[in-house]
Structure formats: structure tokens, C-alpha cells
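Progress report, Aim 2. The chain analyzed during this reporting quarter is listed below.
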Amino acid sequence: MDSEAQIVSCLHAALADLGEEPMADDAVRNIIGLGLREAIDTLVPGRSDDFHQAFVEAYRAHWFTSESSMLFAGARETLEIVKQSDYLLGVATGKARRGLDRVLNDTGLATFFHATRCADEAPSKPHPQMLLDLMEALDVLPEETIMVGDTEYDMEMATNAGVAKIAVRSGVHSGERLDRHAPLVCLDRVADMPGWMATAGLISD
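Predicted C-alpha cells for the chain:
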């Protein structure tokens, strides 16, 4: 999803609610992909558990009243093609379960995914636990798994879990940052994935 503007706006609002000094968009944008606790530790390190809880509550209040983000062009069609090719699909996200459920319900994408894991159910990216949990739930091995992501945190999680990775440049981290993690390919758009998979022999033309 193209959720960058929604997330940045809600993070700015939560920081303001707690009396923090305004931050540059780039600093806030850079933590997209992390769980909220890890985001807080990056943006305003050294805070108490009470601060963490207040920040989480403020962010979620803004997020659940904000307008939903739009899917990237071709995202739904890509999921349809990959699922029809008998791949198992999972989600590993920095969102909490309640937030992911909202997104899946708003977009109607819940039926595409065989398993999901959230940052309030396992350590957040770049820790590998969410991917390890998904592989266990779906009974697949690391060498049978590909992580698709648009941040360095996604790439690091995949490396830590011992799985291959596809990078997509439509997120907040540049292609140069993504390429450092040696993905199989770095695509401009998620809609480019079926074409690359066909070329790589992973799906039929």
C-alpha cells in the first residue's frame, strides 16, 4: 500500500500530542516498516515505558481515524497472479494485529493470504521471528521462501531468516539502500513482479 503519507502524518500528530519538538519528514519517514516500539526508540530514544504506551495510544488514535491508504497500482492483480500460481502468501508487518485487520478488511485482501504475523505478536523487523513463525505455520523451508519488501528492514529480516528477497523501490528507502542487501532483483513497482517471476521461471507466462 502507498501508506507513507498516512503513517508520517500520524507519527507527527502523536509526537505533537506528547509535546515533542517537530521533526523533519525524512527522519519520520525513515522508520516506516518498524514496529511502533522500535520506531519510538529510533525517533525519541531513552524514554520510559509510560511514554511508549502514551505514544502507541496517540498514534493508533490518529491512525484509526485517518483516511485509509490506497493500494499501489497493480498490487491486487499481482497478488491474484501469484496466488493462482499456487504460491502460499503471507504478511510480516510492523503494524499491530488490529491495524492489519483494518487494512485487510478495507482492501478486501484478507482472502489472498494464508498466514499473517504482526509486530505485537513477535519481535519487529529486522528480527527474523515473524518470518520464522510464518514459515513454521505454512510448513515451508527458508530455501522455499521469498520475502518481498520495500525497506532495508525487510531486507535485513529476510537475511536474518535465511530467505531470498525481492526489493521494490516504491517505498521510503532508495534503490541504492535496498541493493546493499543483495536482493534477487530490485523492481521499480510491485506490478513488475509477475513479469520478473515469469522470466525467472517461477510462474508460467
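The CA atoms of residues 147 and 165 lie 5 Å apart. The domain at 4-65 is CATH 1.10.150.240 (DNA polymerase; domain 1). These observations will guide the mutagenesis work planned for the next reporting period.
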